[in-house]
Amino acid sequence: MNILKILKKTVIDSQFYVSLMGTLFAVFFMKEQNTFRFPTFALIFITYFSGYLYTKYQYTKHFFKIVVINAVAGIVCALLIIHNHNEIRLLKWFIIVVLGLLYNSFFLDVYIRKIPLLKVFYVGLVWALVNCWLTLPEFSIPIFLISFFFITALVLPFDIRDMNSDTVKTFPMLIGVQNTKYIAYALVFISSMISVFYLELAYALAFFMSSIITYIFIYFSENKRDDSYYSFGVETCSALPFLFLLIMEYF
């Protein structure tokens, strides 16, 4: 039990896990587009990790440490881009970082997270931009749509988890848990169908299998479930396309 608590605190609660899952989701599309490079992997992970740390700890006593960490992370990311990419990618990265700040920042009177129902779509938008724009020479509409619908669907179970504590209106509050699940099912289905038509066969198959597992996690999402169900189980769904692809390639 102590080991599980330590793992939860050091891996999941530290925002390391969600950052890694988001990065592996991006790696899946980079491999499909044959654009994978380790500096890009590092860039995406550092961006996610510093962003989630900022969002979680900006209102705590650790605020100053988080600002320092984010400043260092920003410099490292900029250097990675300058030495491995070009000024266009630096601009793309900067825009995505600004979008992340608009999601939830202490210096804004009104930020995205305060706007009813918008949060789920905004998270999907930012993750989709990382996959279809930051890592590619040109904007890919199919990858944007696949990512946007899939990630938006994965955010909805978290709204189910938080429906008794959220201070803004969310889908479970307005339409109920079951109807929220129906929306999530539909979004995953649309995402999976687009992948069938636009991704290479092996990648489409990996994404389809991931969608099946995601359906299961959505189905069993309930407000009273333990937090680890969401912070570990549901979060892992975003890495499943890459993990299934890895299994297909090596086994």
TrEMBL record:
Domain of life: Bacteria
Keywords: Membrane, Transmembrane, Transmembrane helix
Species whose genome carries this gene: Chryseobacterium rhizoplanae
Name of this chain's protein: Prenyltransferase
Presence of keyword rRNA-binding: no
Transmembrane segments: 12-30, 36-54, 66-84, 90-108, 120-136, 142-161, 182-199, 205-222, 229-248
Coiled-coil region list: none
